[in-house]
């Protein structure tokens, strides 16, 4: 087990290095002069040259790369040329909004995808299955940014069912303690603030989760259909076990391993997809921060935001692998040689 952990953590660190390297060199392909942006439009050539020297941009590319890795190891992601603050502080301020958006999106995914996949598998070839597959195809094929725009326009602007932007209504923002508006509202026991915070997050979370609902429902349906045709399920049915119990207890239980893997990985995928949704709904999260950084040619902020998104993806994969080792004896036996 120890060797597996060392090997898996080493692979995660190698992946993080790969993400940092790719992001750094791609950022150098972005046209424009970072020093000019940092110095301002009215800066003289001497002032621009001074800023370039301060930021280390006058050094050869390979030197800049190793300086970047050195800062990264020490947790220094640089200084934003727009806000003139440490990028870590900037990200710490916007990260809670993205996290609570993704968490709510995952809750919506489970609540809708699990029943949809189970009903479709239990009614294979029937009207319920056909309807479920049509919904999955439509949900999985719609681009997230287009869906977010349509939901904002129809459900927010035309029907007025949901707020169309921001994290809280005017005067409803809770005192900032953790940065998570829902958690802060709960801490102060203000039910109205809790409802207002969730209300502002629900529509973006629904738009974000829709493609993932289709993916998870398809996997549940496919695995459930295989499980329902297995010998142990046939044996359970022949013994007179109620069909509802066979589906929910025997078949669903055998599918949880692969479903857990996909569901866990969706946290990383949702985190990256949140860039588009946050920009549409005006949520001050990592996605909006990255969008503004790209628009303003704030290279250090772009590097940091993309690296954080990549790190979330890598760490999520590591956690999912460890959960599988703990929960599934077959995988534990295959990976670490422990008895199944």
TrEMBL record:
The family this protein is said to belong to: Belongs to the binding-protein-dependent transport system permease family.
Annotated SUPFAM superfamilies: MetI-like (SSF161098)
Pfam families linked: BPD_transp_1 (PF00528), BPD_transp_1_N (PF19300)
The ABC transmembrane type-1 domain, residue ranges: 95-324
Protein name: ABC transporter permease
Membrane topology: Multi-pass membrane protein
Residues passing through the membrane, by range: 9-30, 101-122, 134-155, 201-220, 254-281, 301-323
Origin species: Microbacterium rhizosphaerae
Keyword Transmembrane helix: yes
Compartment(s) of residence: Cell membrane
Main location as per UniProt: membrane
Highest taxon of source: Bacteria
Alphabetic keyword roster: Cell membrane, Membrane, Transmembrane, Transmembrane helix, Transport
């Amino acid at each position: 087990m120890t060797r597996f952990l060392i090997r898996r953590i080493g692979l995660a660190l190698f992946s993080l290095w790969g993400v940092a390297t790719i992001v750094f060199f791609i950022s150098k392909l972005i046209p424009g002069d970072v020093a000019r942006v940092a110095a301002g439009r009215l800066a003289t050539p001497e002032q621009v040259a001074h800023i370039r020297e301060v930021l280390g941009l006058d050094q050869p590319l390979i030197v800049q790369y190793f300086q970047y890795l050195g800062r990264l190891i020490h947790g220094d992601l640089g200084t934003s040329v727009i806000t003139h603050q440490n990028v870590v502080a900037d990200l710490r301020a916007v990260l809670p909004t993205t996290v609570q958006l993704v968490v709510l999106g995952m809750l919506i995914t489970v609540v809708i995808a699990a029943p949809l996949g189970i009903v479709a598998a239990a009614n294979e070839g029937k009207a319920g299955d056909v309807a479920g597959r049509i919904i999955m195809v439509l949900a999985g094929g719609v681009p997230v940014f287009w869906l977010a725009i349509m939901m904002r326009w129809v459900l927010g602007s035309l029907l007025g069912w949901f707020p169309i932007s921001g994290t809280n209504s005017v005067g409803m923002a809770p005192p900032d303690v953790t940065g998570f508006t829902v958690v802060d509202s709960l801490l102060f026991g203000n039910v109205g603030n809790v409802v207002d915070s969730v209300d502002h997050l629900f529509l973006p979370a629904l738009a974000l989760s829709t493609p993932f609902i289709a993916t998870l429902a398809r996997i549940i349906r496919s695995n459930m259909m295989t499980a329902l045709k297995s010998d142990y399920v046939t044996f359970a049915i022949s013994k007179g076990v109620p069909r509802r119990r066979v589906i929910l207890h025997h078949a669903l239980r055998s599918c949880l391993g692969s479903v857990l893997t996909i569901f866990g990985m969706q946290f990383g995928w949702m985190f990256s997809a949140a860039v588009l949704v946050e920009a549409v709904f005006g949520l001050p999260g990592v996605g909006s921060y990255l969008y503004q950084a790209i628009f303003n040619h704030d290279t250090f902020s772009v590097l940091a935001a993309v690296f954080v998104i990549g790190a979330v993806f890598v760490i999520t994969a590591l956690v999912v692998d460890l959960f599988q080792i703990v929960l599934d004896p077959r995988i534990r036996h295959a990976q670490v040689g422990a008895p199944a």
